[in-house]
Amino acid sequence: HNASFPEELCDILIKSFTNEGDIVYAPIMGTGTVAKMAHLNKRSYIGSEISEEYCKVINERLSSIT
User: Fold this and answer.
1) How far apart are the C-alpha atoms of 34 and 14, rounded to whole Å?
2) What is the pLDDT of residues 27-38, one digit of tens each?
3) For residues 8 and 35, what is the distance between their CA atoms, to the nearest angstrom?
């Protein structure tokens, strides 16, 4: 992905601005970094992505951590 969101930065932001059990929204999912880090930090997530290719990447990425 051309503008991937660093996992470390995403992790810091999720921990700083949400609590366990909160819902994190990613309006542009990209490759699913926000979803992955939300899951790892015990948050739920909702995301939007129009690219079918990226949706496949997201599903593969998330299935490897669950």
Assistant:
1) 8
2) 999 999 999 999
3) 13
| Structure-block tokens of residue 62 | 């998330």
CB 23 within 8 A of CB 47: no
Q: 33-40 and 7-17 helices cross at what angle (nearest 10)?
A: 50
User: Strand 23-26 and strand 44-47: pairing?
Assistant: parallel
Integer Cα distance of 38 and 51 in angstroms: 21
**Phi, psi dihedrals of residue 25, rounded to the nearest 5°:** -110, 130
Query: Length of the chain, please?
Result: 66
Threshold 0.90, pTM exceeds: no
Collapse the DSSP code of 21 into the 3-class scheme (helix H, G, I; strand E, B; otherwise coil) and give the result. Answer: coil
